[in-house]
Amino acid sequence: MKLTILGSFSAYPSFKGFTTSQVLEHNGKSFLIDCGEGTQLQLRKNKIKFNSIEDIFISHLHGDHYFGLPGLILTFNLLGREKPLNIFGPKGIKEIITSLMKVGKTWTNYKLNFIELNSIKSQDILNKNNFIVSTIPLYHGIYTNGFLFRKKTTSHKLIVKKAIDLGIDKTQFSGIKLGKDGVTSKGEIIKNTKLVEPLSPDIIYAFCSDTLFNLKITEQISECDLLYHESTFLKKDENFAVKTFHSTAEQAAIIAKNSNVKKLILGHFSSRYNDLDLFLNEAKTVFENCELAIENKSFIF
Amino acid sequence: MKLTILGSFSAYPSFKGFTTSQVLEHNGKSFLIDCGEGTQLQLRKNKIKFNSIEDIFISHLHGDHYFGLPGLILTFNLLGREKPLNIFGPKGIKEIITSLMKVGKTWTNYKLNFIELNSIKSQDILNKNNFIVSTIPLYHGIYTNGFLFRKKTTSHKLIVKKAIDLGIDKTQFSGIKLGKDGVTSKGEIIKNTKLVEPLSPDIIYAFCSDTLFNLKITEQISECDLLYHESTFLKKDENFAVKTFHSTAEQAAIIAKNSNVKKLILGHFSSRYNDLDLFLNEAKTVFENCELAIENKSFIF
Predict the structure, then answer these.
(1) Residue B104 to residue A43: CA distance in whole angstroms
(2) N or C terminus: fewer CB in 10 A for chain B?
(3) ipTM of the complex as predicted
(4) CATH 3.60.15.10 placement within chain A
(5) First to last CA, chain B
(6) What fold characterizes domain A2-153+201-300?
(7) For the residues B63-83, what does the mean pLDDT come to?
(8) B132, B207 Cβ separation under 8 angstroms
(9) Which residues of B touch A61 (CB under 8 A)?
């Protein structure tokens, strides 16, 4: 999987960078996660094919997380999109988007499916192409979800040499990877488990923005391969974090450590800071494998 | 006055440029005219002080003319704006903006005044700081206005040498410019008209986007100093112009010629064209004093 950061600043776009938006690419498809103002420009800059996006996930209805969505929806239409678009977001998002279309007398020629969320418990909201996407309930003053993307490993790795040595024909290989037993040239049946390696674990990405420090989420994001956790403030400004339902870099690192994730990415930086390395340094005192969500940077995992 | 082009492409922002937005600066204040996605970034790039903007004029509710407005309103708030903001736009704009704020539970600490327009006849909508702003009814499929900005000349130019020769003290000069008579050192009263030049004409900017070719507007914009007229298409694609209620470069030039304006600026270019000079060449066959609305370019008049 490949995660590309399109924007990672909080509150408003500026010279420092765009607001929250990310793309998770997998097998030629893309999930778009949040969609701040200017996201369509960032998609172009990062050469993400518009038509690869079938599903958009919006964490919450603060402008810096979705003000690029109305324009993107209409641009898709102007460019002749035909395939449906699924938009997952808080209840209210459908009315917002449709009211913008209504006043503009502009409707899409492709089907727009809104999947509105209002549960305060985690839900599986998408299951396709071996992906399960679940909500991560967050605490941010208004209804907010993070998203957990789980890529299921369904195909076993074949022990090729062993199969050949046993005299199993190559035409059986794809079936064996999916769980079938093998048959040797002499007609002997070889149990599937003897021909394949154990299933490797699922690959998991957890996106958590925006939220007050909340250890409750650690159970759900436990052991994930990559965690993006917001860190709007530094520890010295924790009072602002509490007041605005945000987290500090240190708190993001505590979440990462307690969840035993493989890697942490910090983002959603307040524009008050000029040196982003301060976030990295603060987080690394708690959790070493940590990087900054720098615009146009990709993470492959 | 100084007009700066922030964006001038139609339909959607792309590598070619941002969508419609312009700033008209005058005596330290700014009028913002239309506000496509990314306008706040363009304002920063062009070093327009956010606080100089007191009035925003939205021509119509197609996204490429106002999808940058919600973000700009909230950015003003985050930056601590205190002074009121007036937003002039089609009926419906207040509900759109307030519904976005409602779902985001985000309200401005400064006063937002919406002046909603629904008249199909021209109206004076603002009269302050020696400016009168009037609507220019356009024809674009949905309710659309252009805007006429008239800077009234209220102060006469003093004939300084004559005043001094007559023995009029300098302390009287500002009063004489505003219409008072002068008094010589010997107590003789000199009529105002003998001390000043005639009032120079008002300075007028006409903004016309988007619209089907419509000669009706020529009366209202007659003799203006600067005319921005949309030219979404070239003449060879006039069928598209008609279908989408837009104009061609030639039609914009015909409007300019029939209105006897001093200068024409072409804009709102369709992204289908790679060579904008084709617009300029087409218009110049009809009206010579013509320029393209190139992003970040300013016109002083």
Answers:
(1) 25
(2) C
(3) 0.90
(4) 2-153+201-300
(5) 6
(6) Metallo-beta-lactamase; Chain A (3.60.15)
(7) 97
(8) no
(9) 103-104
